[in-house]
Amino acid sequence: MDASDYCGAPKNPKGKYGATIICFILGIGSLVSWNSMLTIGDYYYTLFPKYHPARVLTLVYQPFAIGTMIILAYYESKINTRKRNLAGFTLFFFSTFFVLVVDLATSGKGGIGPYIGICVLAACFGVADALVEGGMVGDLCFMCPEFIQSYLAGLAASGALISFLRMLTKAAFEKSSHGLRKGAILFLAISSFIELVCIFLYAIYFTKLPIVKYYRSKAALEGSKTVAADLAAAGISTNTKDQGGYDDKQQERLSNKQLFHENLDYAVDLFFIYAVTLSIFPGFLYENTGTHRLGTWYAVVLIAMYNIVDLISRYIPLVPCLKLESRKALLIAVFSRFLLIPAFYFTAKYADQGWMILLTSFLGLTNGYLTVCVLTVAPRGYKGPEQNALGNLLVLCLLSGICAGAVLDWLWIIGNGTF
Predict the structure, then answer these.
(1) Residue 296 carries which DSSP code?
(2) Quick one: which of 62, 199, 242, 359 has the most CB atoms within 10 Å?
(3) Contact 33, 95 (CB under 8 A)
(4) Is residue 8 part of a domain?
(5) CATH number at residue 103
(6) DSSP designation for 418
(7) pLDDT in tens, 134-178
(8) Helix axes 353-377, 340-350, angle to 10 degrees
(9) Domain assignment present for 3
């Protein structure tokens, strides 16, 4: 079947519910491995107490994510999205598996050797993140908004799921010997399995859903070359200039520079959303919140509250009256979050753990809500290839914000690392 024939199918193709669920699972797979590394931070702090693992691993991860994303965003229109996403999920699977291997091979011992190995694997996570997150967001930007919202919810769900499991394993293994290590091994095994599931879901099921084939066929007719392999896997051919049905005028598109200029405010939104969040999460929560009644549970509870509220907030924009769509209002909301930095400083210095839990929850609430608002509103009004390119550019800004936040996070430990 040809793409133009499939695009002439009924305007409400089947499979929307199934696609939404798969997008959610793929979202989980896009961050579950990295969230596992962050959530077992308390274990890594026992192995590498002098190396600031929560901060260092994040700082190692981000340059590779951004460097890869810059290349992918520049060549986005020529990259095979199917190969890109499958390569990303495969790299996630093997990197997570080898983190587990490193721990088993060293019998859970610390030292500079295992630490360097984990840092190398953190860099691999960064490459995989750029492959998958940019590829998926770009792909979903020219589909219905519910898909990208579900995918973004899946990203948050990965953190909530891992935090929930972390609390269960901490409670189950707290009094047993090597309890932290047992919990970490369980995390990594679960994460490896989820990545394997994502490979099969994307390669076999997602591509063949009628609604996905419809949107990709529509994008192909508008000039997108990135969907050709996915359409071919679904049994749909695309036209080239040497074949009939190819309209050069219809397939003209804005350049990346033009798209970036038109959406500069959205790019700034995403950059500063994540710059503020990562300047606090997770390093500050692990190292700068002091000692409280919750003891070793304190950081685990803070991370869990952030992840759970971040997940819940990503469903708020589904209610039309609660969705923030004004570009000016989004900018104001994003820049207002800078007040969270002094708020965390004074809360950690003077307030009790209850206030810190509340403030961390608010950090997650604003992070998830604003992310979904920006990424579901920005692609409106563009053609398929332009939406794909814009999705990649916005993910690049998001990752740049994460990197900036990871660097700024070190400012909290100037001096002795304590208040």
Answers:
(1) T
(2) 62
(3) yes
(4) no
(5) 1.20.1250.20
(6) -
(7) 999 999 998 988 999 999 999 999 988 887 887 787 777 766 656
(8) 160
(9) no
